[in-house]
Amino acid sequence: MGPLLSVLGFLVSLAGLLHTTVRPAVVLSPAERLDRAADALADAVRAQWQAEWRLRRLQDPEPLAVRWSSAQPWLSDLDEAVGWPARDAERPDLSGRLSEITQVFGYVPSRRLAVLGQPGSGKTVLAVRFTLDLLERRSAGDPVPFLFQAASWQPDQQDLRQWLADRIVAGHPGLAIDGPSGDMLAKELVATGRILPVVDGLDELGGPSRTRAIWRLNTELDAGDPLFLTCRSGVYSDVVEAGDVLTSAAVVELQPLGFEEAAGYLTRTARPVRGPGGARATAWDPVLEHVRRHPDDAVARCLRQVLELPLMVAMARAVYGDTSVDPAELLRRRELAEPGAMEKHLLDAFVPASFRTSARWDGADAMRRLRFLARHLERRGTRDLAWWELHLALPGPLRLLGPLLLLGAVGEILCLTVWLAGQGAAAPVVAAAILTGLCAGYAVLAREGAGLRRTLLLSLACLIPLAATVGAARPLSRDPYFDVPFAGMQELLGWLTVGALYGVAVAAGLGVIGVTAAPAPATMPFPVLRTWRHRRWLWKTVAAVFVALPAVLLTDLLVYPVSRTTLLTVAAVAAALGAFAVRGEGATAVATGDPPRRRYGPGQAGRLGRAVVRGLGVGLAAGAVLGLVFALVVGGTAAGRAAMRDDFPFGATVHGSADAGRYVVADDGTRFGVRPDGRTYIRRAGPLRGAVVPDCYGQGPAFVPRSTGPEADPCGGGEGHGQDGGKRASVTAVMDVTAGTLETGVVRVRLPDGRVVAADGLAHDLDDTQWQWLTRQSPGQLMGSALSFGLAGGLGLGFVAGFAAGLHRWLGAPVDTSRTPSPLASLRTDRDTGLVRGFLITLVAWLCALFVAVLPLGAAVATVVVIPTGLVTVALSAWGRLLTARLWFCSTGRLPWRLMAFLAEAHERGVLRQAGAVYQFRHARLQERLASTDADAGGDGDGGDGEGR
After folding, report:
1. pLDDT tens digits, residue range 623-634?
2. pTM given for the model
3. I need a labelling partner for 491 at 20 to 30 A (CA). Which of 16, 659, 768, 863 fits?
4. Rounded to the nearest 10 degrees, what angle do helices 363-380 and 339-354 cross at?
5. What SS3 string covers 332-368?
6. Given this model, what pLDDT does residue 520 score?
7. What is the DSSP letter of 150?
């Protein structure tokens, strides 16, 4: 009773949410929609980078005094291209310090500025400060400065505007909705000049890609489009020599920190110690004094050089200023006399120092797990640590098929349990075949960028061999109990083939729905479900019901007889597992911005209607093609076999009958005949003995053979009487036996008075040869039945899958443009959306299965394919893939079980930074150092390259 009430409560809540959601929204002009979206994005970006500024402790007590001056003239464009006055005396001085970056940017007439510097010289910090300062001064209508990491760009494959839009959506999925012109809203913001690109780290691209990136910037930016770019000095010089300068851009170069500036910062930020006479002192004082007094000492000279970089100053502060570790070891360890070695030492010590006060993870565990993540990112050539891409670190086939294999393993264990309980071997064999077909079909279909035509061709490549197997192995007779093409196949081959067909059909349904191999996090279109205080328990209830119902149905199907206690136990265990899976990720929540607001533009009802119409169009087209090809292959193969078979089941003299039919006589005297209309019959040599019942279960008269006995009367009457109490009439005569249907009687006889009545009890008296002769089909009948089943099944599958695809697309379209999702928030939202998707897809499948029960059998069978699709879509969602990855990596010790809590704490401690819904390592050089092989021992080795950028 509890689960039923939970389901009813959820449906009532869902109805209320739909009513609230589909109400028409306020209609705004296209420009107003874009302006509002830009304003919401500006608020989100400001909140995000202000939080990052604080987490890096750049305000505690103040950021390092990063300075710059004009770069060498040959690195800049021509004066007239930049817009400089003709006389040098009228040009402003571009030199400045951190707090003056927006002022210096405003000096440049073209509003394009390239900032160069050495690794770790402070380029990224300057880009963040520029973004925040520009947002503070932003007025309505001004472009929104947005920080882009150049490492995520593939300029040889992506044009500039598409890349900018994709990166905005990656951090703010709400901007993936359609804009006023029908294009993606983020892309329209870029196209209309409402985004000011702040491109950080051109040097992180490969050599040829850098030149290509500059070429795209020069050719795809319009005159007057602003740009802020950072790059390493040496790399930018190489790009200019190999290609061109950045058009219309002025160029400045960051200067090294002075030793006294770095020393003053370290002493201000270090914890105080008691000096002589109670004076305030720090552990850095004797070290810095030694550097001043012994400038020619190798280690002192090395330390002076290393502290020219803001990144290394920040590392030194974290390692020594915030801990009790004595920085004097930098002078004692002679192996640190080289700048590279000292920098690697500081980078290696940074993570343990950051986690020194953690109550959950010690520094060694944190280092080991962060190394794994850093290597994963290095292999993929990216800086973005996206939780929904973590499954790409899985080995081999697990990357694509991990969730399916996990579901299959659970199902196979259940089926093996049923088999061991004495229920037969069919269940585990069929489960293995279904899993094989599903994995093979999904592996072929889940290709990124594959259009409908390619998807159909790949589907047919999986379908045609299985259909040919069915056509070659199916009996050439009709099964009156289950009129489908594969009924009556050899047991083991039938299990394997039908199971594989079922798996391929589920994969085809996933293809129509749009479940791909690389899912992005979804956004929940119902604001109430994001903000309701008790939403966690709602999702637990939904998950419990969602898992418990299929488990109970599967148990009832596989186990016979099954007790109520067993069903209740299965339901309780499955519900507990479902609720446990939604227990929540991490204990540290990150602020996610203002409460969600309604999206702008047309109401949700119109969007739902368009999504459903589009899904039905794709689904019905794909289903018709797949069903037709399946029918032609099965029917053609079977019809070809039927055309080559002998006319009769054995060789004998063919006789003609009075009605122009033909027959042969077996050795026992049984006649096997074919009437002029093609129908088959048998006539035994001896008479059939039995009785005619006037009415059998309301289906009319029936012949009851004497061999059934009065106690086994199939019509339920007592001896001498039928069900309606009518008198039974004894019959003894030679009668023709023909095949019927399940509705009219599986076996029928022609009585002496000419009536044809059901004789179901006679079916047990027929041997295989007689049964196959009675039910044999002609080539035309075989092709016709295959076409009927294939088209009905294809259209049934297409209808249900198409409707489910519309719901999937509607629920997957983000609607909230004002919210800054943290990685934890985006994971929870994707989980919630996935559960709603799976629940609604399953509900639609059940409703459609009830509806098509009055339609041809093929349509009813096809809808059964979609019933498990809801659960599979949840498993293949971004959240489901993360669960699979966590099971693998956490069980092998490479990641902690509370993964998101670990990443959130690494973010809070300054090891990671947050960029929308993804994390990034604090600096590229830190990521490269953690990923290097010689960092495993925590010693000195090959480093990477550059915090502060």
Report:
1. 888 888 988 998
2. 0.73
3. 863
4. 120
5. HCHHHCCHHHHHHHHHHHHHHHHCCCCCCCCHHHHHH
6. 75
7. G
